[in-house]
Amino acid sequence: MAWLVVRLAISMSLLYTASAVFEDQVGKFDWRQQFIGKVRFALFDTHSQASKKLLLATDKNVFASLNSRTGDLFWRHVDKTGPEGHIDALLMYGQDAVVVVGNGRLLRSWETTVGGLKWETVLDTGSFQAAALVGVQDFVKYVAVLKKSAISLHDLSSGSEIWVENLPDSDSVQYQTIYSGGNGLVLVLGVVPNSHIVIVEYKIEDGEIMNKKSVEAAWMSSLESSCAVVSSGILLCVDQITQSLYTLPLQSAEQTEMRQIHLQTLDLEVVSGFRPVLTSTQPNPAQPPLSEFFLQLSPDHHILLQFKDGLIAPLRDFNPAYLAAFATSGERTVAAVMSPKNDTACSINLFSADTGRRHLDTTIIYHMDPNGGKPNRLYVHAFLKKDDSVGYRVMVQTEDLALTFLQQPGRVVWMREEALADVVTMEMVDLPFTGTQAELEGEFGKKAAIQDGLLPMVLKRLSSQFILLQAWLAHLWKLFYDARKPRSSVKNEVTIDVLSRDEFNLQKMMLMVTASGKLFGIDSKSGTILWKQYLENIQPNSVFKLIVQRTTAHFPHPPQCTLLIKNKDTGLGSLYVFNPIFGKKSQISVPALPRPILQTLLLPVIDQDYAKVLLLIDDQYKVTAFPSTKNVLQQLQDTASSIFFYLVDSSQGKLSGFRLRKDLSTELIWEVVIPTEVQKIVAVKGKRANEHVHSQGRVMGDRSVLYKYLNPNLLAVITESTDTHQERSFVGIILIDGVTGRIVHEAVQRKARGPVHFVHSENWVVYVYWNSKFRRNEFSVLELFEGAELYNSTVFSSLDRPHPPQVLQQSYIFPAPINTLEATLTEKGITSRHLLVGLPSGNILSLPKLFLDPRRPEMVSEQSREENLIPYAPEMPIREEWFINYNQTVSRVRGIYTAPSGLESTCLVVAYGLDIYQSRVFPSKQFDVLKDDYDYILISSVLFGLFFATMISKRLAEVKLLNRAWR
Amino acid sequence: MTAPGGGALATRGGATVRRMKWSLELSLGNSSRSRGDRQSKDGDVMYPVGYSDKPVPDTSVQEADRNLVEKRCWDVALGPLKQIPMNLFIMYMSGNTISIFPIMMVCMMAWRPIQALMSMSATFKLLESSSQQWLQGLVYLIGNLLGSALAVYKCQSMGLLPTHSSDWLAFIEPPQRLEIMGGGMVM
């Protein structure tokens, strides 16, 4: 019976919290964008003229097919992260794409039209070196995979292994490339650095070694980067030290050393410090390569050369030229060369590969984005036009990972911002008011207004009202104008100029910082990229911290954001200050940071321009203030004694707290050492600065109050044991006061290990760990209460807290692994909280905090029912209707960002990983908004009806009264 | 609906001569008027204005009625007290759950004594004729106060009074923080 009651209670509570998106709400306030990452291999499907496919393999271990007309994804396969899913090579023949995955672990063949897997073969162990298609008599039948110590040949149609052979002397020789010219042989080329080259010939049929020879090459260190095979099996190498080209016929028995051709004899010279690059092309794997090749002598100098009868002749010199690439259509091979036109544009031209003659009318103008990076890869898709001339399209990849697809004469067909596949951190900023709103604000906001006198004030008021009237008329006109057009064409473009805050502040500007150093400003409503800015010279492993110093609330001061970029290698940081709405770099002078920066601290103190003060702490614990005007320094001196900061050094296991001195130096006030031999600090989190807590306590069943312990200075420190044995490993959590260093609470979860995800908010901490004893994920929640009475209800000071809080804890089983955890956030904190759980499946689960309540009773009582507490059940439910992103899964979700909107019920959510998903959640449903299906017509008609009925009956009653008076 | 009929009569009567919508006729000569008809039915004698043919009661106070007045006044004064047992019974029957009927009853119970207390002066006027006016007034007051106390007790037992700290929870402002703190992992 009791169990029945419990079940009933659970189902009732579920009924209350269950909410999902209706079918007609799909895509109404949410959007998803899918990305693939930095392109490593790109191949155009050339086997039919009408094909629109573009195959891409990226450094994010994604293998995808794009529609080359629109840039949309046809299909996408996301492999495992890390080296296990690394795509080593991509080869394509006809409808099949062969991919080598995981350092030569797997060989897969994909059907390119629908993206289905045709076959998969597990390869022998050994690190991957090269792969090549092997053809016999003009027909490609095999794929050869070269590993460090073995070569194997596989059938292209079934993946079955034809043969596998061990390479001779593989411990001394580094085998690096495969070459096959369609003559029944597979050649494996290896090198012993600074000694000689080894060439081994295998027979395709049975893998028999036909020939093996070694050639002196004392100057050579690596084959891969400096050699290419041209013409009918001529190995061509370039060396920058001797400034020479070397040639060697691979299959001739008589020549036993490489022929040296000095570059000087060709009037060429390699720029010092630049490693020259040879680019050859083999249009058909069953045929030998072309005898023409590109030699790159400096970053912007290419030259097209031809190898003929043992001699090398220059065909055409491209100086300057950034990029060059070959492309083949049918029997004709062309070379596309990108050369600078002026400061902002490049021109791409097509040249005939065999003569070096320029094709007429083939120029594509590529306009470089002034806020973007330089182009660094060029992919060419050549095709034969109806008049048998060669047409082409190009895809340009730039340093900032933007893919631009162009066609003649320079029309951008589509563009993809692949930098967004790796978002590091983000913020959301309110949009500014419209011009008219700002005009009104400005009228009353300016300080000078008072001094203006009466008449100018009246004039100013009149003029602003006139502007308002004008804007209103323009708005009416636009409505009228749009109403005549068909609905589909009205879809207005979002641009920076039309951006303005909507009445509920639901539309915001998303600032995204990506690992490549590109910043984006994205409209949260539509997902349109409104501005982008590439920061050059960002080290790949830099650490970013984005800080909003001034919001849009202080018109006419523009909003201001600061990005702290810290170089991991040198430790030095730099500041980039910009306007988050327009993406423009601010003119404000930035303090020089000569010392490595350890941490930052954003103070609620504002300067006379309403910018919050940012403190930067360097490795000598000195503080730099930004902005550092006199006003700010004065304020800092006044408040210095109440400014504290903490630093966590995970390598030394040390937590330390500092207090600011008046001269902007600091003093150490506390230190907690967690011995690194036993456990290491994994993460530390305080509370979010913009979090509001509406209710200071919880109402008990007997109508008394249990006050929350709302310490704004509380830190949650997560530690993991260094011992990873499943019996001895543990996860620890320490709640520590960041001002005094007092340890408020400590808990240890035995037989548990990370990765730990946690959220610290209000008076609770929720964390997830792996229970290695029971092999399951567990949620644990800690809640802190002050007790039945508040110690001090007016001010909170960490220095005066004599009573420790009461701590309650409960744990639950969660039936899925998780990727990330975040809590919803609303304007005033009245709405109940939900936890947003990013699952590896790509779904985002909105889990009511109600379920994670340590006061959930094991036995139902009158009081607990009064409190609406759900009886304790160890299993946490996962319901499909709690997935806020229905089928719009977010691949490899890495972070979730929540921001409050102007509506108390609504919280904006952005989940990012490989994809970006934006939506709104309503943890307590939309209690402050009328429903979508609210029947305005019925209500208003009833209202009007009643109104008229009242009028008429009033009139009738008057007449009747008069008549009665006559009686 | 005699007025339209009268109007019709008037127009019929005045088919040739235009008449006023209404007029006062002091002479009894015209017997075609309906009002005149009614008067003429009562009697043929013409009474002066203000004459009433009903006898006027004797308003002088009789000595024998004194006790009766006294009794009546005590009835008024004890009215609220007599209500109390009834109220107690209703309270017991309605229970402590918060739903529309108990709330309505509580409202009635609270409102009636308050109303009575507000119209105290009118009640005093009523009791003016009694010799024990002040005592009766006091009893009346106590009765009403008891009635309202009963209503308050009912509210209390229903939990409608903000007597618990939880009732004031929403008004507690978040405490102001004195220290500013920040930081994090060493970047």
UniProtKB/TrEMBL annotation, chain A:
Residues 1-20 form the signal peptide. One of its GO terms (biological process) is protein folding in endoplasmic reticulum. Coiled coil: none annotated. Residues 761-966 form the ER membrane protein complex subunit 1 C-terminal domain. It is a single-pass type I membrane protein. InterPro entries: Beta-prop_EMC1_1st (IPR058545), EMC1 (IPR026895), EMC1_C (IPR011678), Quinoprotein_ADH-like_sf (IPR011047), WD40/YVTN_repeat-like_dom_sf (IPR015943). Keywords: Disulfide bond, Endoplasmic reticulum, Glycoprotein, Membrane, Signal, Transmembrane, Transmembrane helix. Residues 20-418 form the EMC1 first beta-propeller domain. GO terms for cellular component: EMC complex. It is found in: Endoplasmic reticulum membrane. It comes from the Eukaryota. Component of the ER membrane protein complex (EMC). Belongs to the EMC1 family. This is ER membrane protein complex subunit 1. The lineage of its organism: Eukaryota, Metazoa, Chordata, Craniata, Vertebrata.
UniProtKB/TrEMBL annotation, chain B:
It is a multi-pass membrane protein. It is found in: Endoplasmic reticulum membrane. One of its GO terms (cellular component) is endoplasmic reticulum membrane. The gene is emc4. This is ER membrane protein complex subunit 4. The chain crosses the membrane at residues 89-114, 134-153. PANTHER family: ER MEMBRANE PROTEIN COMPLEX SUBUNIT 4 (PTHR19315). Component of the ER membrane protein complex (EMC). Keywords: Endoplasmic reticulum, Membrane, Transmembrane, Transmembrane helix. Belongs to the EMC4 family. Residues 28-61 are annotated as: Disordered. It holds the Pfam family EMC4. Residues 34-44 have a biased composition (Basic and acidic residues).
